[in-house]
Amino acid sequence: MIGSAVTDEPGNILYLSEVEIRNDIASTMKARAALRRNRRQRNTRYRPARWLNRRNSIKTGRFSPTMRSKIEAHLREIRFVQRLLPITSIALETGTFDPYALKNPEVLQHKWMYQRGMNYGYVNTKAYVLTRDDQDHIHCLVKSKPKISPLAIVRKLKQASTSRLWQRYEVPLTKHFWKERTFWSDGYFCCTIGNASEEAIRLSIANQG
Question: How many distinct helices (H) and strands (E) make up the chain?
Fold first, then answer.
């Protein structure tokens, strides 16, 4: 976030603004790299291998794309204000914030508490989210032909949902599921609705979680 202000010599405020900086540069570049990697692996056309010919990437002393975006955001705001008002001098101030300390000020007294973050005690972020939301399974009401086995239905649901989720959220999921593209465990449970009405079951499933 960038905050800017312009004052005159007596101290009267002439201009105030707040600019939100882009934070999606890294994820956007990862998504672009994934698309390019996918295109290269299709074998639709011949393309010779390229190694260290990307001069900008191996240049010493270069800024990362995220840093360049933030620097350009500051310069763009300064140029915008200079078009509106006669600026005689510019003062830049930087401030750092500790989000974890804002939520839990006790860590300022006990530095070892930084090692016990949001995921402390959990295998990964997926396990933390499932515990936080009290969700380690989902309920589904399925109607099918008698000749189709429950195992085939569950297998199809797991395969289709996994495929669609990876197609839609490939970049963020790769951070947590880098070993294999899977979500579901091998087990499942199914039963008939018994004496309960179908509407009651639908209402229960709609309100799950």
Answer: 7, 2
Name the token pair of 14: 């002439």
Whether 2 and 23 have beta carbons less than 8 Å apart is answered as no
% helix, strand, coil for the chain, step of 5 = 45, 5, 50
Residues 6 or more apart in contact with residue 135 via CB below 8 angstroms: 209
Tell me the Ramachandran region of residue 16: left when phi exceeds 0, alpha when psi lies from -120 to 50, beta otherwise.
Answer: beta
Residue spans per domain, the chain: 2-95, 98-136, 138-206
In 3D space, the residue among 173, 138, 136, 133 whose CA is nearest the CA of residue 154 turns out to be: 138
88-125 pLDDT, tens digit each: 888 888 777 777 788 788 888 887 777 776 667 666 66
